[in-house]
Design a protein that fits this description.
By secondary structure, the chain is mainly beta. The chain contains one helix and ten strands, in the order ββββββββββα. Bound molecules: FE2/S2 (inorganic) cluster (FES).
């Protein structure tokens, strides 16, 4: 399937080692992260543990630490670092000329929120 990219913001609009939240209608938000090397990643803004807001976590290397119980989540895959288990949805990101785009189809598709979520 071909991608249809939607420009979301500029890389510079995302705080280094922080994130920017993309609001979606009737869907959980998407968090776009920027690390110290200006790499950009996008994940569903829900931790695979108990749904904590990953956008409020601290980015280190290519991981983000969840603000609720400090799980480390791989920004590339959305998966928790062992011994923790579970993955949150990751989104394709394109960076071109300093602009960050997300795939419109992916952005509009229903998120599989329950995927990988640990039992409450
Ligand atoms: S909700 Fe993220 S570590 Fe518990």
């Amino acid at each position: 399937m071909s991608n249809e990219w939607k420009v979301i913001c500029r890389v510079d609009d995302i705080p280094v080692l922080g994130s920017r939240v993309v609001q979606r209608k009737d869907q959980p938000n998407v968090a776009i992260f920027r690390n110290s090397e200006d790499k950009v990643f996008a994940l569903l803004d829900k931790c695979p543990h108990k749904g904590g807001p990953l956008s409020q976590g601290i980015v280190f290397g290519e991981r983000v630490a969840c603000p609720l119980h400090n799980w480390s989540i791989e920004l590339n895959s959305g998966c928790a670092v062992a011994p923790d288990e579970g993955c949150t949805q990751r989104f394709a990101v394109k960076v071109e000329n300093g602009e960050v785009s997300l795939d419109l189809h992916e952005l509009n598709a229903p998120s599989d929120v329950a995927k990988g979520l640990a039992a409450a």
